[in-house]
Amino acid sequence: MSYRVKRIDPYWFKHPVLPLVVFVGAALALGAGYAAKPAVAIVGALLAAAGILAATRPAITGTVMLLGFLGGLVTFVISPNSSNAALSAMQKAMSVGFYTLFYAVLTEGALLLLAVIYNLFAAISPIGGLSLELEDEGGSEE
Fold it and tell me: How far apart, in whole angstroms, are the C-alpha atoms of residue 26 and residue 79?
């Protein structure tokens, strides 16, 4: 059997406002960061993060957050480096939580960008997209 992957669709909400929310939030965060206004930068970053997390399917978000949580546990709790070893239990828990959120937002943003680039090249390429060759292992015998 041969399948051709013509389009990757990781999107959950396909509302056209979501990319605008991400762009405005990122621009607000960067502009406020350069202007030394941390409160406005945090609001902009949260706006962009909410747009990214709302754009992807919940299964992708859950998987990426689980990987981020496990990475945070290893980094801050299981085998911390010398600067993380002196943190209190509450600080370690907060570090794991922030690590999980940052990892999820950055990874999902990269996955969405990769899907957009793949869909663009698959649409303009004469070959189409990836081809998957699947073989049946003999089927079911009765």
Answer: 33
Q: Where are the domains of the chain?
A: 2-126
Contacts of 54 (CB under 8 A, 6+ apart): 12, 13, 18
The end-to-end CA distance of the chain, in Å, is: 22
pLDDT(141) > 60: no
Chain segment 67-117, per-residue pLDDT in tens: 999 999 999 999 888 888 888 999 999 999 999 999 999 999 898 888 888
The pLDDT confidence band at residue 4, using thresholds 50, 70 and 90, is low
Q: Which of helix, strand or coil describes residue 85?
A: coil
Angle, helix 89-124 to helix 38-55, in steps of 10 degrees: 60
Q: How would you write 34-70 as a 3-class SS string?
A: HCCCHHHHHHHHHHHHHHHHHHECHHHHHHHHHHHHH
Token pair recorded at residue 70: 């496990």
